[in-house]
Amino acid sequence: xxxxxxxxxxxxxxxxxxxxxxxxxxxxxxxxxxxxxxxxxxxxxxxxxxxxxxxxxxxxxxxxxxxxxxxxxxxxxxxxxxxxxxxxxxxxxxxxxxxxxxxxxxxxxxxxxxxxxxxxxxxxxxxxxxxxxxxxxxxxxxxxxxxxxxxxxxxxxxxxxxxxxxxxxxxxxxxxxxxxxxxxxxxxxxxxxxxxxxxxxxxxxxxxxxxxxxxxxxxxxxxxxxxxxxxxxxxxxxxxxxxxxxxxxxxxxxxxxxxxxxxxxxxxxxxxxxxxxxxxxxxxxxxxxxxxxxxxxxxxxxxxxxxxxxxxxxxxxxxxxxxxxxxxxx
Length: 330
Ligand SMILES: [Ca+2]
Fold this sequence. Notes:
The protein is built from five helices and twelve strands. It has a single domain (about 45-320), classed as Alpha-Beta Complex (paralog of FGE (formylglycine-generating enzyme)). The chain is an alpha+beta fold. Strand 5 (about 115-120) and strand 6 (about 125-130) form a beta hairpin. Calcium ion binds next to loops.
């Protein structure tokens, strides 16, 4: 388990305070036990079809990364993206509840007994006892509504969910290819160096104000928003910028410029898309090339996921292909 340092993007391990180090050590030990449990128990298998719409994202030769942006987004390179069926929205609380009801799955946060929550009183991330996918802010807070993206799910949980339905997590390059088809209903793609669109109507769920001091919430939400609340991009997908970061299957590391990463020993997985905590000055994680990363057992209140399916390997358990999607080519 690792917490973000400050702001929205994940940067470092727990800070070097003795009490926190002790906490990290306990987490490391219990995390190892949980990993052994996971291997011993095997992956869950869902017995009923998933209620999810899938959208075909066409293949294409595209640019990955941005030479004008953050260090870990450079160098940019070309990537031959395969066609992939994407979940139309991030996985919802209702979809995850159906999965749990079917498989009796317990998430990492539930086994740890705690998960990462951003505390606005201290402007720091903290491990909140009892926070999980049902109550992402903690047990004293309201339960998450069924139409919100599920959060407080680790990479391991997300991977187990997708595999249970014959699906998988997207690679970060597949995710970027889909996002480059449009992140907002008007087809806007957020890139480095441009002024983000903050005027009304606000088209993404992000942070409006000086992070972490003040969020005006002029987009209508200071936490997660229902999936699709801001509409669907020309790709047919919703929530590709803001709302929640989304886990990908990719290991985190510096790009090697040839379609891989330099540090194959990385123990963190990449997240894409930014979240409701992303502002235009500090985070900018809603940019199409922005990357965040966490260890696979980390659960946070602003990180969710969506699944993908290879068209040739699609199985009935994976969901239904949406047929009414308006999509731009390229
Ligand atoms: Ca917001």
